[in-house]
Design goal:
The protein is an all-alpha fold and 226 residues long. The protein has one domain. The protein is built from 10 helices and no strands. It is globular and about 70 Å long.
């Protein structure tokens, strides 16, 4: 999942050079991630990650955590709320309605909706969550401590380059002029995808709340004297 996220950020960064280059990078990314093996690995990793997150909420009895753990957990749980919309629009839209994702169409739609900011914020929580998770796991190694300044620089530079690349592509798309209005069929498809986003976000929040509440009930039952 971290490789997937990093690749997406770097692809956004290609927009610093040109929209055309970023579109070419996106085509290569689609070929890579639509491969059946890559698909199974990616969605399998996402399912395992989500299951472990729910188990953490359920099984943890003590919530007095270091600030770095609190930040990592907050970033990790907020990231899917943004990612669900992205996944439904690009992957489910392609699967159900053959809507081929492109930066030109995605950016034009975001600008029309006035939600460019959400796209810029899309990968920030996941990027922070992944970086903190890797650092917590690997910080005991001397090599990691030695290259810590380089790692901090990469943590800042990569998402910054991605944001600037996205903004540059926004300017290029604006120069192309307004897109033709969507057909009635396309509007129905977009409404259906919007329903999918709302339902998935709802059940995601329900799963998190249920895991946390069941965990508190379990903790109270265990701590209660016999």
């Amino acid at each position: 999942m971290f490789f997937y996220l990093t690749q997406h950020l770097l692809n956004h960064a290609l927009g610093l050079f040109s929209l055309k280059l970023a579109e070419a990078g996106l085509e290569w990314a689609i070929v890579l991630w639509r491969n059946p093996v890559a698909t199974v690995l990616l969605y399998g990793a996402a399912a395992v990650h989500f299951a472990l997150a729910l188990w953490t909420l359920y099984s943890r009895r003590e919530w007095r955590l270091p600030w770095i753990e609190i930040l990592r957990l907050a970033a990790g749980f907020s990231f899917p709320l943004l990612l669900i919309g992205h996944a439904v629009t690009t992957r489910l839209g392609d699967t159900l309605y053959d809507i081929r994702p492109s930066y030109t169409s995605i950016i034009a739609n975001l600008v029309a909706l006035g939600s460019e900011g959400s796209q810029l914020a899309l990968f920030a929580p996941g990027w922070l969550h992944g970086c903190l998770g890797l650092w917590i796991t690997l910080r005991r190694f001397e090599t990691m401590q030695r290259i810590k300044p380089l790692l901090i620089a990469l943590i800042i530079v990569i998402p910054l380059a991605a944001a600037l690349g996205f903004l540059n592509m926004t300017v290029e798309v604006a120069v192309l002029g307004p897109r033709p209005p969507a057909s009635p069929e396309r509007l129905i498809e977009q409404a259906t995808l919007g329903d999918w986003k709302d339902r998935l976000k709802f059940w995601y929040l329900i799963a998190i709340a249920a895991a946390f509440l069941l965990g508190r009930v379990r903790a109270l039952a265990v701590s209660r004297p016999a």
